[in-house]
């Protein structure tokens, strides 16, 4: 930002040229971080200059020809209530000065002008403007954080984490209480595209697609839209829409193709009701979407409320899935390999046709992949690529061998010993990241990924090295920042809460009291007394 842009702009208004000259030369404007942007001999000319220069401070004579100072102030303050008016008044105009204060003037001084008194007054005016600017920035931050928190909350609930519901009561009577259905949009061949794009190109493409999806959503009655995984967006439609689900999906695909030239597919769930059902309908929409890997073409795929078309007697092996998840969490490759063999025997024993067997494996692979994702063991590993590979293999034996190899390699990566110095450096890196991003809705998966460690390994090492658990350290950083804001500003408690990562001021107060033994208000009052 240029130096001029950092300065507050001052307009001088007086019908006596000698006063204008003295104000220009006798006041240390640069030291005050202010600059004079205009001079006017009467209120009428001042009105035009205010429009042209948008000053922050107006120093005006109270009695002038054409339009006097008070009339000038009444004209412009309703349009810009943050303007600071300082009036210059003759000794016999005291009642005018008092009226100016009642109408919203910042202060006044009597002629002959005491320049030291005016400098002190300008210092106070600058303090007010600084506080207004800080509050404006905070309110902008609050609005941005609120939007990000809403997106984050929807994503968390979709993942099955109900924690955000505990403190975001404002959504209890949301539009999701009526019937709705979910559409999951994914870019086709996303892993291939990201291999071709630089990081900057990837960021720009995802930003462009998001804008296209959001604009399309505004035109088609979508309740909400938010990004989920990379290359994937979720849209929630009211169940009462007249257009069919397939038509909506095809219309969306056409819109994205038209403006981005990129191909995508859409998986659409059945209708449901209530925000707590997001985690139930997402697997349905995602499962429908994965049909594209064995259908041979991109397009719209709809959850038809049946598990396996043409063979309803096939039971999904939930017990095997649970055991495989345990083998992943314990990084036990031998156990996982044996369980895949059991899966092959299960399919063979029932003579399940290839198409249905492939659907069973697709459902299992999606679940296992998500657990690898949470454990940070799937870096540079494409789910789309894995499912596409399965689809092109001809026999069950080939499919199971591919799964053993793919998942086994990731388990081996998670089991590799880590150099202690590298580990300490990684933990220090995550500490700095937390200290810079404490105001965001941090999660342990995100931070462990930064350390390039599995979640369980990261938790153990972070506690050993820092003495804190991950959550304790995030809370510690937030509380220290909150204390600093309480000591050094007059920002209200409800405004501080979102700035340090809490969307619910009451919950923030509870956490602060638990950490410090005082409410934020009590803490501020005590430190104010100490300063005085």
From TrEMBL:
<feature type="modified residue" description="4-aspartylphosphate">
    <location>
        <position position="61"/>
    </location>
</feature>
<dbReference type="InterPro" id="IPR009057">
    <property type="entry name" value="Homeodomain-like_sf"/>
</dbReference>
<dbReference type="Pfam" id="PF17853">
    <property type="entry name" value="GGDEF_2"/>
</dbReference>
<dbReference type="GO" id="GO:0000160">
    <property type="term" value="P:phosphorelay signal transduction system"/>
</dbReference>
<dbReference type="InterPro" id="IPR011006">
    <property type="entry name" value="CheY-like_superfamily"/>
</dbReference>
<keyword id="KW-0238">DNA-binding</keyword>
<dbReference type="InterPro" id="IPR018060">
    <property type="entry name" value="HTH_AraC"/>
</dbReference>
<dbReference type="GO" id="GO:0043565">
    <property type="term" value="F:sequence-specific DNA binding"/>
</dbReference>
<keyword id="KW-0805">Transcription regulation</keyword>
<dbReference type="Pfam" id="PF12833">
    <property type="entry name" value="HTH_18"/>
</dbReference>
<keyword id="KW-0804">Transcription</keyword>
<dbReference type="InterPro" id="IPR041522">
    <property type="entry name" value="CdaR_GGDEF"/>
</dbReference>
<feature type="domain" description="Response regulatory">
    <location>
        <begin position="9"/>
        <end position="126"/>
    </location>
</feature>
<dbReference type="GO" id="GO:0003700">
    <property type="term" value="F:DNA-binding transcription factor activity"/>
</dbReference>
<dbReference type="InterPro" id="IPR001789">
    <property type="entry name" value="Sig_transdc_resp-reg_receiver"/>
</dbReference>
<feature type="domain" description="HTH araC/xylS-type">
    <location>
        <begin position="428"/>
        <end position="526"/>
    </location>
</feature>
<dbReference type="InterPro" id="IPR020449">
    <property type="entry name" value="Tscrpt_reg_AraC-type_HTH"/>
</dbReference>
<keyword id="KW-0597">Phosphoprotein</keyword>
<dbReference type="Pfam" id="PF00072">
    <property type="entry name" value="Response_reg"/>
</dbReference>
<protein>
    <submittedName>
        <fullName>Two-component system response regulator</fullName>
    </submittedName>
</protein>
């Amino acid at each position: 930002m240029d130096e001029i842009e950092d300065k507050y702009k001052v307009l001088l208004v007086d019908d006596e040229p000698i006063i204008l000259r003295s104000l220009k030369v006798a006041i240390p404007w640069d030291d005050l971080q202010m600059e004079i942007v205009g001079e006017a001999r009467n209120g009428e000319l001042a009105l035009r200059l205010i429009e042209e220069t948008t000053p922050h401070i107006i120093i005006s004579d109270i009695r002038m020809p054409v339009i006097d100072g008070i009339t000038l102030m009444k004209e412009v303050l309703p349009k810009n209530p943050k303007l600071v008016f300082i009036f210059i008044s003759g000794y016999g105009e005291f009642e005018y000065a008092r009226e100016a204060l009642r109408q919203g003037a910042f202060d006044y001084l009597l002629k002959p002008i005491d320049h030291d008194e005016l400098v002190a007054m300008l210092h106070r005016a600058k303090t007010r403007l600084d506080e207004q600017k800080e509050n404006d920035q905070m309110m902008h931050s609050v609005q941005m954080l609120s939007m990000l928190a809403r997106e984050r909350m929807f994503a968390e609930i979709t993942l099955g984490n109900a924690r955000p519901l505990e403190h975001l009561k404002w959504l209890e009577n949301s539009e999701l209480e009526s019937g709705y259905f979910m559409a999951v949009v994914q870019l086709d061949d996303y892993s291939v595209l990201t291999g071709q794009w630089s990081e900057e190109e990837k960021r720009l493409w995802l930003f462009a697609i998001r804008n296209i999806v959001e604009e399309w959503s505004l035109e088609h009655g979508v309740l909400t839209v938010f990004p989920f995984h990379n290359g994937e967006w979720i849209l929630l439609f009211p169940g009462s829409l007249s257009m069919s689900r397939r038509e909506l999906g095809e219309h969306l695909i056409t819109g994205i193709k038209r403006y981005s030239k990129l191909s995508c597919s859409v998986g659409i769930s059945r209708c449901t009701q209530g925000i707590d059902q997001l985690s139930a309908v997402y697997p349905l929409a995602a499962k429908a979407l994965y049909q594209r890997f064995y259908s041979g073409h991109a397009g719209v795929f709809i959850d038809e409320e049946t598990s396996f078309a043409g063979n309803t007697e096939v039971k999904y092996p939930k017990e095997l899935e649970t055991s495989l998840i345990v083998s992943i969490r314990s990084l036990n490759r031998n156990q996982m390999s044996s369980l895949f063999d059991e899966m092959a025997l299960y399919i063979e024993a029932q003579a399940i046709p290839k198409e249905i067997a492939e659907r069973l494996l697709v459902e299992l692979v999606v679940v296992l992949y998500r657990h690898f994702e949470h454990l940070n063991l799937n870096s540079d590993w494409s789910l789309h690529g894995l499912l596409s590979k399965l689809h092109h293999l001809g026999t069950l034996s080939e499919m199971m061998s591919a799964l053993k190899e793919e998942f086994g390699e990731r388990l081996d990566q998670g089991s590799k010993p880590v150099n202690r110095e590298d580990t300490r450096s990684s933990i220090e890196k995550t500490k700095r990241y937390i200290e810079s991003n404490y105001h965001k809705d941090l999660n342990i998966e995100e931070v462990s990924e930064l350390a390039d460690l599995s979640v369980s390994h990261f938790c153990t090492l972070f506690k050993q090295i820092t003495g804190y658990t991950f959550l304790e350290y995030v809370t510690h950083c937030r509380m220290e920042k909150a204390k600093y804001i309480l000591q050094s500003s007059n920002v209200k408690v409800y405004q501080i809460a979102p700035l340090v990562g809490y969307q619910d001021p009451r919950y923030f107060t509870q956490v602060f009291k638990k950490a410090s033994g005082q409410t934020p208000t009590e803490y501020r009052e005590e430190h104010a007394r100490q300063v005085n």
